[in-house]
Amino acid sequence: MLKQISPLILVVAVSACSTPTERKLANDIDQNYQDLTVAPKLIIPEGLNQPTYSKEYDIPEVGAKVDQNLVGNRLDIRPPLQVLPMAEGTRVEEGSENIKVVVESIDNDISLKQELFDVLKEYFAKKSIPLRSEDFDKGTLETDWIESDEVIESSLWGSDKVYKLKQRYLYTVDVRPHGRSGNLTIDLIEHEESYDGDLQEVLLSGEDKRRYTIDRLNDSISYISIERAKALKAKRLKESLGIDVNLVNEAEEQAYWLADAKFKRTWDRLRIVLPEMGFEIVDMDSNKSLLYINVTDDSGFWSSLWSEKELPIEAGSYRIELKDAAGDKTEIHLLNAENEPLSNEVVTAVYEGFSELMQEDRKVR
Q1: Tell me: the pLDDT tens digits for 183-223?
Q2: pTM metric for this prediction
Q3: Are residues 171 and 58 in contact, defined by beta-carbon separation less than 8 angstroms?
């Protein structure tokens, strides 16, 4: 026994459906004004004054520069499509038909180009988007067809009428020679629409391409944003962990400290630790691997660490020099203002408090 359905409900259900192409047009609005003609002026007998005519409601003529496809019921009434908030280290530059995202590196230890390629391929895999080709040297990733279906008319007794959209996009990654920044460009390269199995003849305007590209951009960048946030948190966590430092004080050799970390991480850690030790950083020269510091004799750190003992280092100007060592380690040398090594006794005396602060884990913010 078939359940009775109100004809009114069916009419409403069918009338409320329309294709995406129809939705962008003002086809439900009375466009009769387009067929209106200007009424002739009144014929005034000779000797009488002409009445005053108001031009307030005159409809101006369409100018020569206006696209005739955007007039009347062909006008696109969709609201502007906006680029959503961007991922960390990115900003957008919009073209007429494509979108270019300027991307900056968030980790100097990772290749920016490799990062973008990896995260885009993860995005495609998660969205089940097949790749037609990829070329790392050229920086291109070309998708296969991305399909989406929308039921326009649903039937209880027959097959549904489905609107199908198929598109292919080209992602281009162009990283500058210095490797710290680059561009990610997205282009719509193929587009097909079909309704109820019939291929539709569609001529996309520049605005159409731009809207589709922004939509694809927002979906892509939202994924990149999540992955970059994870990477930044992992980096902060790694940097928050302490660095083991050993004292190297071999016979007849100049004493120094050996940090169990690469140069960059050791350098960044020293910038945090040295002020906590009472060493004022007055200048830095990463090219020469030098930190210029001043030491005062009223440091609360020294007095709390050594109590009644004299400071293990006199007040004055000093330098700290870093050198790469084997096994991803970094040598730390304590020098005076003349760039001469301090005595092994001083290096050894300062080591205790220095190593404790270097090895201390920090909270992740």
Answers
A1: 998 899 999 988 888 888 877 877 788 888 888 888 888 88
A2: 0.59
A3: no
